[in-house]
From TrEMBL:
Its cofactor is Zn(2+). It comes from Basidiobolus meristosporus CBS 931.73. This is Guanine deaminase. Its EC number is 3.5.4.3. Pfam families: Amidohydro_1. Catalyzes the hydrolytic deamination of guanine, producing xanthine and ammonia. One of its GO terms (molecular function) is guanine deaminase activity. Keywords: Hydrolase, Metal-binding, Zinc.
């Protein structure tokens, strides 16, 4: 629906994180957005007179002014820092196995289908539209090893107006013969894809490449070294999986006895940088935490997947206390849903479980993540992990307007409001029991990309 945009003014309620621990609830707020989607002006407690003055100050006509209905509000778009676009085709199925068996049994056979560009076109159109309608305005995607299919994913994201990093997956060892590449091919196609994406990004800066070694077991040292060189040459981000599952960690130790840890392997090959996004990080040692922090790499917390594949429970509270960069990911299809609302809810449950069972060095139980912290992880935290905090994550002047218009009063809504509901409880209800039916409109770069009005 890429409707072209003019400057706009939005008047009503807004909620966003001002920092990790605080959500700001703005009443009678105004946000003015430029033609290119930049937030020019934010103001709260605006009177009708001030509203008229602001509209005239920005030379806006009545049709450029949107006035929200009583219970509606805007919140920042969700940022999914870890999702496998090709795995949408089997999301919600095959949840009986743990990671390594799951990869062999379900994942690799299904990803192999993306050799067909026709198949890729249909599947990628399905997944990108599904994410957008669920409010994911920015995604950090894994593709497959097939460069043509990855280009189709990039074209789809471009056409649908989403903001995304997209990576061609690299796999040159320990992979089935029907789904593996030579080291040489893997590097060559990755460079071709990076160049394709950088070219695309000149016209549409919403799309960008990310180097994507699947994980250490499926990439030789030679390949990882060359990918590290590409990351430096093009100064682009890197994403992979780290310390997700105990069996996986043991396997990495067997493959790399010369290096002290799983994290050290990525670091050794130049893949742990301040632009790196490591998914899961459930079972990190203290040394690994320190190394990630030293390199200023980011972590994608994928709570649904960690439960569904029974990988373990990540102690996000500890990561936050250690001042690590943390965002959230759905990890479709290890995680069974594309919805970041579900990612938030499952992260809440994971943090409750940690709070029952784990103590900090002083012997106190870790505290559960609060609503503000959960929303932060799904917005500002994700932006930081992706190096996009200057552009997106909340409604600060100078950032881009990536926003969701939430309508809690839709007749088909899963929840109802009562006289005792204020803005805070309305927001809580949406986060806990709302769904895509309440996500009435989705804006990316100020452009309306999805509307259920
Ligand atoms: N580790 C390597 N590949 C994958 C994958 O596709 N999903 C998850 N969850 N972990 C992985
Ligand atoms: Fe994953």
């Amino acid at each position: 629906m890429n409707s072209s945009t003019t400057s706009r003014l939005f008047f009503g309620k807004f909620v966003h994180n001002v920092d990790l621990e605080n959500l700001e609830y703005i009443h009678d707020g105004v946000i003015v957005v430029s033609e290119t989607g930049e937030i020019l002006h934010v103001e709260k407690d605006v009177t009708q007179e001030q509203l008229a003055n602001l509209a005239s100050q920005y030379s806006l006509t009545a049709d450029q002014v949107t006035i929200l209905e009583e219970n509606q509000f805007f919140m920042p778009g969700f940022i999914d820092t870890h999702i496998h676009a090709p795995q949408y085709v089997f999301a919600g199925s095959g949840m009986n196995l743990q990671l390594l068996e799951w990869l062999e049994t379900y994942t690799f056979p299904r990803e192999a289908f993306f050799k067909s560009t026709e198949y890729a076109k249909k599947a990628y159109s399905d997944v990108v539209s599904q994410l957008i309608r669920n409010g994911t305005t920015t995604a950090c995607y894994y593709g497959t090893i097939h460069v043509e299919a990855c280009k189709i994913l990039a074209d789809t994201v471009d056409e649908m107006g989403q903001r995304a990093y997209i990576g061609k997956v690299n796999m040159d060892r320990n992979s089935p013969d029907y789904y593996i590449e030579t080291t040489e091919d893997s590097v060559e196609k990755t460079e071709e894809f990076i160049q394709f994406m950088l070219e695309k990004s000149k016209k549409n800066p919403r799309v960008y490449p990310v180097i994507t070694p699947r994980f250490v077991p499926s990439c030789t040292g030679d390949l990882m070294r060359k990918l590290g060189e590409l990351a430096r040459k093009y100064d682009v981000p890197v994403q992979s999986h780290l310390c997700e599952n105990r069996g996986e960690i043991e396997w990495v130790q067997q493959l790399h006895p010369e290096l002290p840890s799983y994290t050290a392997v990525y670091d050794h090959y130049g893949l742990l940088t301040d632009k790196t996004i490591m998914a899961h990080c459930v079972h990190l040692t203290e040394e690994e935490c320190a190394l990630i922090k030293k390199r200023n790499a980011g972590i994608a917390h994928c709570a649904n997947s960690n439960f569904a594949l029974r990988s373990g429970i990540c102690n996000v509270r500890k990561l936050l206390e250690d001042k690590q960069k943390v965002g959230m990911g759905t990890d479709v299809a290890g995680g069974y849903t594309t919805s970041m609302l579900d990612a938030i809810r499952t992260a809440a449950i994971a943090s409750a479980a940690v709070s029952f069972t784990e103590q900090d060095p002083n012997g106190n139980n870790y505290s559960q993540l609060k609503l503000a912290e959960l929303i932060y992880l799904a917005t500002v935290g994700g932006a930081k992990v992706m190096g996009l905090e200057e552009r997106i994550g909340n409604f600060m002047v100078g950032k881009q307007f990536d926003a969701l218009l939430i309508d809690p009063s839709k007749p088909e809504s899963n929840f109802r409001l009562y006289s005792h509901d204020d803005f805070y409880t309305t927001f809580e209800k949406f986060i806990h029991i709302g769904d895509d039916r309440n996500i009435s409109r989705v804006y990316i770069d100020g452009r309306l990309v999805n509307s259920k009005d």
